[in-house]
Amino acid sequence: MVTTIDVANYFISKSLDTDGKTPDKLKLQKLVYYAQAWNLTFYNKPLFDEQLEAWQSGPVAPSLYQYCKNYSSGEYPIQSQQTNIFSKSELYVLEEVFRVYGNLNSTQLRKLTHRETPWSGARLGLSKKDSSNEPILNNEIRAYYQNFADLNSEPPKILDIAIEPEKEITVTAKFLDGTTQEVKQSEIVNFILKNKDVLTSEKRKPRRALLSLPS
């Protein structure tokens, strides 16, 4: 299986080939996150083994952070692109992610991940300034992003609505008594905090309750 460094290397090389620039560290983290997210969504399997974490700045692969932290964005200690390490389906995911997200800057990508429930749900109860290494679970990632995919096409595609800044979806909250309620994405955190004692959840964690996302 490939690593987060392999995936980052792909995006660095792709960016250099496209516009002669390397992505900054924040953008690189977000592209690697979306590569994992869409591989999970399209093929129901992770692209790499590493657990992504919900840091202040958004989803982060810790190994990639450690690898690049002592270098400027233009001086990554990463070798030139080796696409032969990826399978055909993996390479397709990377190309599709770059097609959709590659033109967004790091600030835009940060805002995008912050309004999406895999990251915001993992940081439930934390302030914007709180540190956290809470994992962003693969099943939550796939449950969310499948709402923004055309899984019936061959190959599957990321829909344009995935990056619409004002896109609002609803999720289905399940209560202990079996009833459900539709909740707007922007209201999820407050809703869980208000109803955490009566929501069903995996391992009794309230944030696990909001996984049923209508198409």
* Percentage of residues in helical conformation: 40-55%
Mean pLDDT score: 84
User: First CA to last CA: what distance?
Assistant: 31 Å
Helix/strand/pairing class, anyone?
Answer: mainly alpha
Plain-language structure description:
The chain is mainly alpha-helical and 215 residues long. It contains eight helices and six strands, in the order ααββαααααββββα. The strands form three sheets. The protein has a two-stranded antiparallel sheet with strand order 1-2. Strands 3-4 form a two-stranded antiparallel ribbon. A two-stranded antiparallel sheet has the order 5-6. A hairpin with a 5-residue loop joins strand 5 and strand 6 (180-184). Helix 2 packs across helix 5 (106-114) and helix 2 (25-43) packs across helix 7. The longest helix is centred in the first third of the chain and has 19 residues, at 25-43. The protein is globular, with a radius of gyration of 17 Å. The two termini are 31 Å apart.
